[in-house]
Amino acid sequence: xxxxxxxxxxxxxxxxxxxxxxxxxxxxxxxxxxxxxxxxxxxxxxxxxxxxxxxxxxxxxxxxxxxxxxxxxxxxxxxxxxxxxxxxxxxxxxxxxxxxxxxxxxxxxxxxxxxxxxxxxxxxxxxxxxxxxxxxxxxxxxxxxxxxxxxxxxxxxxxxxxxxxxxxxxxxx
Length: 173
Known about the structure:
Layout: E1 7-11, H1 26-35, E2 42-44, E3 47-54, E4 57-64, H2 71-82, E5 89-95, E6 103-107, H3 115-124, E7 129-134, H4 147-151, H5 157-168
């Protein structure tokens, strides 16, 4: 970590009201929670950004507006513009291979089929910190949906409470 540089905290999701509260937008949901109020967002480099301080660290919150599959475009552009090293990048995203309401963190690794992560890996390399929010797999719920339909479906009311509780527990530093 380079403490003298800001941290880029990226939440993955798809832009647009129709994607609100979808499993694939868990990263956007986390960023919105970290951001607090709706004021101060700026549109730059194919992303919505907002500058805040978290525990005395300068943070640029990011919601790529390129849609999930091209998230790397926005991340690479912002890293270059702000000269942010890869070790100061934190990506928050959904993971259906983790039980609903659980969080796991890691640095690097494979995309495990997540197209947003695959895009970022291709654009900047895989060695950034990942905060993975479990959204469960359809088989966990005896649901016949395909995985792609599952992540593009909305959380039900009970699941939404669980997700917001787990988002509240995220500690970045």
